[in-house]
């Protein structure tokens, strides 16, 4: 938002923007528009500010600043001459926003507050082409050039580059779409060329008229045509958001131009009449303040957002009815006044808060005076009297078949976007601005992603008041135009780039705004009745001609004809039902005690229709007679006793029934004694017997499991021992082979044969060793090879072909003497028996029950 020169010095918030042209430049706008720069010689005081023009529409500010007489606007061609003030239709309605102090209401309603506008009669506040004064429309708006409301399903995204005294760091190309890119000399890195950003519009200069025409006009017209429209300005502090939206005395911004355009639109639309309501609010520190409510109540009663999804309602929020541009100025002026009152430092506040100006536009066709239905009152302010209050403000009613179109135009000036990224101070305020602008970025990012990738990811609208309020619009229910303002100075390239990235993201959001209409139900009923009459007429004609035409028609054509009559009939029945439903509702409301009649017979029906009705009635009767029969049977089953039977009879019947009850109790008790109790006992016995068995089973299973675990552990241990022995055996074998290789493998000679050199044994020491192993096994009674033994002996299988030394004792293996006459048997047997007696597995197995050893 804008800066005030007076307060800027005191503000701790220093603005990087020195450029604040307040007065019209002597340079022509052409000088500025193309380059976005202002010649130094023409630049006015740098300390001037647009902030004081924030309420540029206020009549007060206008009289204060404008010395020259207001230019007289040429009347719009085709504008009917205004009738004099005495005529009720021509007299200009007073904007009902002026406080009516002390006015006593003649009606039995409680006295309304000074600012209560909820009881304004909407019929008295209507605006139409006759009531708009030439001064209320903008002479600057090019009426002939009505845009096409922008791209219907895309957000209209434009960039506005604020003029600068320094050299702009941005280059603008006048292509289609318009593009903007950073001057390479200001790029941080020269590795990649600067990104070329493309948008619907890239605007430069200080002229607000082309900006309005390019970015806002289409959306204002769309709002007048029944579409919700949102125009918001996003950008760094002092980049020109407020200048663009509000403008100043010489360059009115989008808000004043939009209001003028609204009245111009009304003036050139003689077929419709309008009810305009304005609201003005501010979101500051995540609280919504109603700027039109008295300051005390706006603090004590902050505005709440209610509802979900597309049905968001702001409450309590004042909506002021306006009938002229003067009324709009007053509303804006009051809102600005309240906003300033609430802040100690206006600049800080304005750049840290979001302001939202909303216009609710309701319209319906003007009554042609043809007297359709009961509504023959002339259009406009003819309905006298006082209305009961409507929440939020008066509403236009759908009348005499004229449906009401409702739309909202929202004009939003956001807080400075750099707060979302660089506000280091962790103040409450900074945090809240961060929250709402960061959430806006996230929401737009997710929406863009969802549209681009056809996804349905959660969009965090609820994370901030701003996004929650904008939810219906951002969800696609509005035409959106975003104007992103950038400061072209080289010092601000980072912030400007992030603004351009935001703009690029929002471009991808998909929209699907629809017109909203409230239909007049009375008129709808009238239309149904008319259609029924026409259909009946056609049906009657067909039936009358049927005898003659049927003779000429083929069988197929006759069938078609009969089908057509059937169709007519069913449509008549359908419409009649719709009418009857609404009448039935009215009847039941009117007299609760009287049941609504299920059907109404129209005696104007054709014979065919009556026949159908008769058949349906017959079917209904059959169903009902079956029901009657079953009810009669039920009645007969009841004990016979007339209501006027003597008391004694009744007592007897009661006694009889009491007896039956007792008998039934006896039966129930008998069942319990004879069957219930014994059955329970049997069940308990069975349970008891089986519980012990079950417990024993469980115990056994647990023991076996423990034994199996132990067994596995022992086998593991045994396997390790085997591996170790195998390693040692291999070492020994290697030693023996080496021994042989040295020629020492012959049987040792007897000590006496020293002279005869020993002859090597055929096959060497290895052969001797192998032979000894075989002999040993044979002697122990094992024929199977060792490896087989190992496999069968142990529940833990070793790899096939793995040599086994399980049965071997180290001292046996240790016997490496090569004398084949040395008896081997005793040692082997001894080892074998010793091994058996010490086997840990056997020890465990022995300890187990039921395991044969
Ligand atoms: N296009 C422009 N032509 C001439 N002056 C401009 C333009 N844009 C901005 N300015 C001037 O720059 C100053 C800052 O602009 P403005 O107050 O609109 O910024 P802002 O983005 O609204 O800042 P904040 O975030 O604080 O509200 C004002 O004095 C305004 O007059």
Feature tags:
single chain; 853 residues; alpha/beta; Kinesin; 3 domains; ten-stranded mixed β-sheet; three-stranded antiparallel β-sheet; 22 helices; 45% helix; 10% strand; disordered N terminus; disordered C terminus; binds adenosine-5'-triphosphate; microtubule motor activity; Kinesin-like_fam; microtubule binding
Describe the model.
This protein is of the alpha/beta class and 853 residues long. It folds into three domains: 13-70 and 120-368 and 378-516, Kinesin, CATH 3.40.850.10; 522-619; 665-847, no CATH class. The chain contains 22 helices and 15 strands. The protein has helices spanning 5-8, 29-33, 59-65, 208-224, 241-245, 254-267, 295-300, 325-341, 346-352, 419-422, 428-453, 465-477, 493-507, 521-552, 555-590, 607-637, 647-741, 764-779, 786-793, 810-814, 825-838, 840-847, and strands spanning 156-161, 170-173, 178-182, 196-199, 201-203, 229-235, 272-284, 287-290, 304-306, 313-315, 320-322, 354-365, 404-413, 479-486, 516-518. The longest helix has 95 residues, at 647-741. The model is unreliable at 1-118, 369-393, 421-426, 582-601, 751-755, 782-837 and 848-853 (pLDDT under 50). Residues 1-3, 17, 19-21, 49-50, 162-163, 206, 235, 237-243, 350-351, 416, 485 line the site of adenosine-5'-triphosphate (ATP).
């Amino acid at each position: 938002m804008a800066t005030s020169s007076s307060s800027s010095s005191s503000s701790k918030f220093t603005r990087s923007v020195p450029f604040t042209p307040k007065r019209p430049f002597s340079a022509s706008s052409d000088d500025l528009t193309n380059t976005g720069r202002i010649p130094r010689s023409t630049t006015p005081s740098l300390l001037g500010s647009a902030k004081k023009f924030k309420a540029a529409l206020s009549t007060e500010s206008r009289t204060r600043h404008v010395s020259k007489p207001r230019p007289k606007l040429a009347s719009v061609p085709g504008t009917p001459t205004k009738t004099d003030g005495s005529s009720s239709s021509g007299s200009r309605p007073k904007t009902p926003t002026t406080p009516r102090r002390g006015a006593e209401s003649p009606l039995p309603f409680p006295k309304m507050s000074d600012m209560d506008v909820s009881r304004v009669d909407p019929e008295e506040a209507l605006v139409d082409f006759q009531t708009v004064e030439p001064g209320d429309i903008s002479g600057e708006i090019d009426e002939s050039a009505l845009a096409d409301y922008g791209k219907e399903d895309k957000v209209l995204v434009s960039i506005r580059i604020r003029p600068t005294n320094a050299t702009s760091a941005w280059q603008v190309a006048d292509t289609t779409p318009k593009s903007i890119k950073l001057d390479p000399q200001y790029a941080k890195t020269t590795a990649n060329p600067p990104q070329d950003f493309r948008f619907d519009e890239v605007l430069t200069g200080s002229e607000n008229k082309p900006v309005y025409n390019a970015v806002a006009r289409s959306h204002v017209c769309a709002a007048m045509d029944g579409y919700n429209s949102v125009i918001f300005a996003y950008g760094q502090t002092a980049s020109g958001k407020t200048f663009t939206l509000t403008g100043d005395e010489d360059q009115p911004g989008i808000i004043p131009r939009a209001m003028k355009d609204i009245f111009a639109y009304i003036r050139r639309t003689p077929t419709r009449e309008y009810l305009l309501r304005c609201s003005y609010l501010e979101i500051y520190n995540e609280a919504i303040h109603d700027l039109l409510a008295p300051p005390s109540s706006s603090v004590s009663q902050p505005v709440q957002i209610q509802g979900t999804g597309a049905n968001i309602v702001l409450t309590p929020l004042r909506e002021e009815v306006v009938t002229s541009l003067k009324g709009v100025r007053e509303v804006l002026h009051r809102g600005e006044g309240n906003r300033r009152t609430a802040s100690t430092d206006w600049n800080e506040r304005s750049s840290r808060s979001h302001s939202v100006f909303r216009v609710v536009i309701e319209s319906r066709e003007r009554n042609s005076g043809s007297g359709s239905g009961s509504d023959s009152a002339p259009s406009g302010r003819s309905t006298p009297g006082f209305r009961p209050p409507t929440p939020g403000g008066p509403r236009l009613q759908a009348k005499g078949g004229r449906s009401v179109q409702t739309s909202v135009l929202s004009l939003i000036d956001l807080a400075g976007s750099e707060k979302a990224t660089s506000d280091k101070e962790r103040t409450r305020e900074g945090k809240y601005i961060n929250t709402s602008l960061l959430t806006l970025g996230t929401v737009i990012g997710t929406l863009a992603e969802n549209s681009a990738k056809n996804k349905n990811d959660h969009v965090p609208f609820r994370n901030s008041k701003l996004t929650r309020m904008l939810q219906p619009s951002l969800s696609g229910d509005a035409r959106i135009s975003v104007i992103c303002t950038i400061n072209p100075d080289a010092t601000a390239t980072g912030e400007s780039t992030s603004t351009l990235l935001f703009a690029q993201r929002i471009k991808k959001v998909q929209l699907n705004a629809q017109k909203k209409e409230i239909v007049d139900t009375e008129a709808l009923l009238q239309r149904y009745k008319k259609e029924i009459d026409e259909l009946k007429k056609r049906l009657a004609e067909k039936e009358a001609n049927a005898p003659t035409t049927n003779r000429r028609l083929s069988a197929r054509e006759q069938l078609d004809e009969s089908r057509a009559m059937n169709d007519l009939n069913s449509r008549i029945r359908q419409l009649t039902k719709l009418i009857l439903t609404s009448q039935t509702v009215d009847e039941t409301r009117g007299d609760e005690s009287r049941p609504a009649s299920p059907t109404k017979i129209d005696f104007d029906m054709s014979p065919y229709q009556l026949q159908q009705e008769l058949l349906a009635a017959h079917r209904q009767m059959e169903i009902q007679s079956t029901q009657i029969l079953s009810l009669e049977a039920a009645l007969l089953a009841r004990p016979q006793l007339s209501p006027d039977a003597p008391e004694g009879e009744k007592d007897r019947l009661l006694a009889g029934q009491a007896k039956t009850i007792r008998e039934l109790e006896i039966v129930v008790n008998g069942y319990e004694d004879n069957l219930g109790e014994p059955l329970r006992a049997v069940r308990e016995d069975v349970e008891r017997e089986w519980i012990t068995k079950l417990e024993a089973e469980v115990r056994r299973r647990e023991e076996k499991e423990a034994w199996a675990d132990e067994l596995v552990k022992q086998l593991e241990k045994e396997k390790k021992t085997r591996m170790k022995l195998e390693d040692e055996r291999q070492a020994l074998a290697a030693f023996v082979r080496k021994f042989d290789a040295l020629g020492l493998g012959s049987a040792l000679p007897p000590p006496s044969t020293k002279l005869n050199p020993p002859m090597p044994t055929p096959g060497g020491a290895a052969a001797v060793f192998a032979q000894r192993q075989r002999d040993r096994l044979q002697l122990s009674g094992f024929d199977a090879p060792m490896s087989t033994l190992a496999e069968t002996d142990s529940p833990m299988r070793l790899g096939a072909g793995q040599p086994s030394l399980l049965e071997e004792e180290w001292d046996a293996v240790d016997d490496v003497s090569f004398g084949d006459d040395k008896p081997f048997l005793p040692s082997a047997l001894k080892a074998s028996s010793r091994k058996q007696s010490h086997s840990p597995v056997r020890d465990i197995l022995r300890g187990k029950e039921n395991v044969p050893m």
